[in-house]
Batch of 2 targets.
Target 1
Amino acid sequence: MGAGVGGLAAAGALARAGWHVTLLERGDRLRGGGAALLIWPNGVAALRALDVSLDDIAFPMVTGGIRRPDGRWLIEAAPNGGAALAGSASAGAPANPFVVHSDDLHDALMAGLGDRIEIRTGMDVTTVRAAGAHRPGVGTGKHTFEADLIVAADGARSVIRRRLAPEAALTAAGYTAWRAVIPWFRVPRLPATLPAAGELLGTGQRFLYATLGARGTSASNTRGGIYWAATAPGAPRPEPATTQLALLRRWFADWQAPVAELLDGTEPQDLVQQAGEELRPMPRHFGFPVGSGGFVLLGDAAHVATPDLSQGACLAFEDAATLRSLLGDPSSVAPLGPALDAFTQTRRARVSRVAKASRRLGMVLQAQGRLTVRARDVALGRLPHTLLDRAAATAHHWTPPP
Ligand SMILES: Cc1cc2nc3c(=O)[nH]c(=O)nc-3n(C[C@H](O)[C@H](O)[C@H](O)COP(=O)(O)OP(=O)(O)OC[C@H]3O[C@@H](n4cnc5c(N)ncnc54)[C@H](O)[C@@H]3O)c2cc1C
């Protein structure tokens, strides 16, 4: 249930393993999430295990170091594109991510659904039946659906999680993020010396950008351009996107290129605003045996880490690959209980580690206060690999189950 990246990945994987899958989505149609995503080595490995190809749609993010808002280097880009947040060029350091347009990723996941899945849009699930010997069920008020297994991939505000794991709480991380992809035809002229990707860190504010392909050379099946993501302290803004964009231009007015240029080239319809949030505490269980079947929480429905390590979608792909491996084909599992317990055991420890690493990195990257920021900048300059690579390595090292 839920046709975000996690639900699509799980639905396609289970259908290909022989399960009869019905996909319920409350939206009136299936669509991508907007902007772009970084897909780290663990996400790439999970997608590969799920037979979803990023060929021709994902671009390696060659990192361009970290600067202060005034342009001075905190961590200088190595000539070969190493260093910085996305991983250093040193031996054993985590590899760089790929950047992919959300609509291209959505299309790739849709292609992976095949033609054996029943897709029901406009189905806003509001009720959950998880008691007694009945098969698990969900309802919309008008329709009821029963299944051996209900996969709740209904996002950070999951109704199924609220019913089955009320102990979990969505907590504000204290900042808001804005993201956009500016298509190449609208990308402003930028200084030729700028690296293809980079990051600037200020006081509580952060700006990251990466190119999706090169101007004029994107494959016809990709949506090329420049992806950027910015964060600023505080709650999401209630104003319309035009006003949010005006605020961003004001907050980042003095920042070095390409910040002002990219904000100027952005149009309100490009903008995606999201709160920095975390599910803390996490649910005690991700799998819930009910009768001879059960429920499983997957992706943001099960675990939300702060976006500092940009790992949420990658973890959802790990979930989907793990679930498929534990369930096998429909004839091989009955009852489902042991597989659901194993899912909790395998996934909970893993995502807790990543969430902790992301939270800690966030405290560094979103630091506020003049003295704290000065100490942060000194530490980043001297110990970049310790502070950044360790957090990234926690997330990247993951091997798909057989
Ligand atoms: C600022 C920011 C940047 C990020 N950047 C990255 C990144 O670079 N890389 C990365 O890996 N991750 C990133 N993430 C995290 C990533 O976006 C999420 O983890 C991921 O989208 C979660 O996918 P999901 O399918 O679990 O949930 P969602 O994408 O939220 O999908 C849930 C789906 O369920 C549907 N739904 C909800 N409720 C119901 C209901 N009651 N009935 C029926 N359907 C329902 C929704 O309509 C939606 O389609 C970022 C997050 C943020 C906030």
Target 2
Amino acid sequence: MATASRADTLPFAWYSDEEQLRRERARIFARSWQYGGRADQVAEPGSFLATDAGGVPILVVRDRDGELRAFLNVCRHRGAVLMEGGGSRATIQCHYHAWTYDLDGSLRSAPRSEREPDFDAADWSLLPASAGTWGPFLFVNPDPDAAPLDEYLGALPEILARDIDLDGLVFHSRVEFGSNANWKIVVENFLECYHCPTAHPGFSDEVDVHPDRYLLEPHPTFSAQFCRAKATGEHGQFHLLYPNTGLNVFPGPPNLSIGPIVPNGANRTARYLDYFFAPDVDPKWREEFFAFDDQVGREDTALVESVHRGMASGMLEHGRLLLGSEPLLGAFQAWVAERVSAP
Ligand code: FES
Ligand SMILES: [Fe+2]
């Protein structure tokens, strides 16, 4: 048997195993920064947003003092998910038995609790999580002791600012989609353009996908990809903030899409992308852009579902990366392996 090499992929069994996903939830998703929505959704004091961090329900609130807070969006009584959607509230009341929490998470009232001799409301505050904003984006992390978002983002804001002004963007729409593939397959497909000439003819007509000019750059907490439009030389950037936030800027008028890649069981991935554009972007261009993006997305869905079926056959132990063309997969897989095998 060949010995394991750096170029080996992760074991294919890791891509359809619920036990592996359980480890990833505990070691990765429960303690990572993930895109959770728009900062403007929790801008006003008293506003809240129910969101999700890799399957963990998170409630973000802007309290009356203007402080951004996050909690696990799970009632301390018997575990109901507390809030859905977003809006504005003076308190957070559970829809099941009406336990009512303050915007700082403390339990303010629990009907009939005065009949219980040893019930102390102070023991039943909402469990804290973390939230942070970067320009128009809201990020959440189930870990209350997470290192600050700014620190985690590292050089990403500065890199992005080379090609786009975040403050000049306006939210346009959210597009939801999904695929029958493990979340890591979806991430890995996003981390290389080795498949572009074969699988994305339309994209490869527009964008220069030559390996000397489509550049791949691993960073400690994210993977960066840089490209140019063939016709105009305009720049594009595609990033994955580990573990699961994708961020795309296509060459052309100011555009950006961002969203999480969320496991929904080991064999299915749910996604959404929030699209932002400069306010003066030509609507006709935007329509063509969505059609183009949708086409590339369909091509990718077919690819990842094919990979999932092949891996899940259980007949192959692992594959072999071409690290010259797939260095970002090497880096991502090492990052995952390090976390799931940590004691
Ligand atoms: S589960 Fe929330 S009040 Fe009972
Ligand atoms: Fe692709």
